[in-house]
Amino acid sequence: MARRGAYSGGAGEKETFNIDSWTPKTELGRKVKAKEIVSIEEIFESGKPILEHEIVDVLLPNLTDNVLEMKITQRMTDCGRKSVYRAVVLVGDANGHIGIGVGKAAEAKPAIEQAVKYAKRNIMRVPLGCGSWECGCGTRHSVPITVKGENGSVEVIIKPAPRGLGIAASEVVKQVLRMAGIKDAWTFTKGRTRSIFNTAMATINALDNLNKMKIKGDWETARAAAGVAKEGQAAS
After folding, report:
1. Pairing label, strands 185-190, 124-125
2. What is the domain extent for residue 106?
3. pTM for the full model?
4. For residue 201, is it within any domain?
5. What is the CATH classification number for the domain harbouring 74?
6. d(Cα 155, Cα 205) in Å, to the nearest integer?
7. Residue 208 domain-assigned?
8. How many domains does the chain have?
9. Are strands 97-105 and 167-168 parallel, antiparallel or unpaired?
10. Beta-bridge partner residues of 65
11. Which residues of the chain have pLDDT under 70?
12. Residue spans of alpha helices (H) in 47-188
């Protein structure tokens, strides 16, 4: 049985983005259209906010979207009952990039479209790696370290898992991790996890905390260096 308020599916047929018809409104957008910036990683490194969803359409054309939740709220006005749709949407490329957005409108489709735009503007990088001591394959199939995220009363902990295990998580957490490109992970949740939005945001916050780890070079190089250091200490 589907959870109340949950919605499974994408935002509909994806329209082809035409860069020629796009008129950028920000300096960052103009640089992207002029091909002065050709990678989303350049924007992440600069720390500049993405204020136009078209920037992501250009730099990450393979993004897919998924509607996590659709709710309808009603209130009584002088003209009768007024309905408002609230959509929570994920976007990701299953290769280390994910975003989440919320949209509200008088109809379902505009609410989803608005949520997709906000999710693209909230796109972030997710460092992938192989942090499980049981694996050591060195591929980007899991998370490099254990991370924790919180939102409201919900707390989510994500731990590295060996290759082939899959994602041991609830459906909401599993959808977030899959869209980020994580194939194997242990997860632990506590709090009021019936709240789909809070659970998804806690998972997103946990993934965002991966960007705060301080490791020189990529994960494979750092892991190899740690192994050499341990061997040197054992020899001495």
Report:
1. unpaired
2. 19-125
3. 0.82
4. no
5. 3.30.160.20
6. 10
7. no
8. 1
9. unpaired
10. 91
11. 1-15, 214-236
12. 53-59, 108-121, 171-180
